Amino acid sequence: MTTRERRKPGLWVVVPAYNEAGAIGEVLNGLHEYLPRVVVVDDGSSDRTGEIALESGAAVVRHAINLGQGAALQTGIDYALARNAARVCTFDADGQHDPDSIAALYAALTSSGADVALGSRFLGSTPQMPALRRSTLRAAVALTRLQTGLRLTDAHNGLRLFTRAAAERICIRQPGMAHASEILAAIAHERLHYVEVPTRVNYTAYSIAKGQSVTNSVKILFDLVYAAWTR
Questions:
Q1: Is the CB of residue 203 less than 8 Å from the CB of residue 126?
Q2: Cα gap 83→192, rounded to integer Å
Q3: Contact predicate 156/85, CB 8 Å
Q4: What is the pLDDT of residue 33?
Q5: Is the dihedral of CA 147, 148, 154, 155 positive or negative?
Q6: Are 174 and 227 in contact (CB under 8 A)?
Q7: Which of 44, 46, 110, 134 fits 65 for a cystine, CB–CB 3.0-4.6 Å?
Q8: Residues 91, 15: contact at Cβ < 8 Å?
């Protein structure tokens, strides 16, 4: 696939980032074919995340304080829509996602006529996934099916692609990790057509140390239960 084919007109990539100076440069280097339509939302970082993102050619929006990944995603989506985005892709800042997966999501969305394409690590490749993380994600899938009725294989993958119409109909109110289940609940409520796409998730020493701890796994489950309780 050529660079021209991959630089889809109207496609914006939203990257929420909090203290990701150790990874954001490499992540944006992998996304260079989509620049300058990449917006990094620096969610109150205390390191050089925002500066590195600017130096790498991305647009940067800064939160004065850390508001959480859900809030950062909504800020980035709003930014992209205000700039006439036709499609919006969400992409993690820690290096777990493969930039080549964006083309796969785009192709699946186009061929299926769906409103949303959702990445699934369980349909794709998950080298070196920690056992606790796998168990937590399986539990998240079960809870999400009970809450929404969506027959998904991966309920907590940050790699997603929305049509403009779908992005406009999803409003993220949960600031923390529960935003993932909130997005799926909105897809079900709005009766949006979705398709799952096999994607690769790379579990590196950096990403595991950054966010895949026991504490974070427990927090994900807590946020999921809290989101269900407050619906």
A1: yes
A2: 23
A3: no
A4: 93
A5: negative
A6: yes
A7: 44
A8: yes
Q: Exposed/middle/buried for 188, CB within 10 Å: 0-12, 13-18, 19+? A: middle
Tell me the two tokens of residue 127. 């080298």
33-59 burial by CB neighbour count: b if 16+ within 10 A, else e? bbeebbbbbbbbbeebbbebbeebebb
Rounded CA gap, 172 and 186, in Å? 9
Provide the phi-psi class of 197: left if phi over 0, else alpha when psi is between -120 and 50, else beta.
beta
Q: At residue 100, what is the residue type?
A: D
* Run of H or E including 53: helix 49-55
Residue for token pair 């992209």: 80
Name, in order, each residue with C-beta under 8 angstroms of 60's C-beta and a sequence gap of 6 or more: 39, 40, 41, 42, 50, 53, 54
Share of the chain above pLDDT 90, in %: 61
C-beta contacts of 58-62 below 8 A and 24+ residues apart: 58/15, 58/28, 58/31
CATH superfamily of 9-229: Spore Coat Polysaccharide Biosynthesis Protein SpsA; Chain A (3.90.550.10)
Q: What is the mean pLDDT of the chain?
A: 85
Residue with tokens 């995340």: 49
pTM for the predicted model, two decimal places: 0.85
Strand 59-63: give its sheet, edge to edge. 59-63, 38-43, 11-17, 87-90, 160-163, 116-125, 194-200
Residue-wise pLDDT for 34-67, tens only, equals: 999 999 999 999 999 999 999 999 999 999 999 9
Q: Residue 186 contacts by C-beta under 8 Å, 6 or more apart in sequence?
A: 169, 170, 171, 192
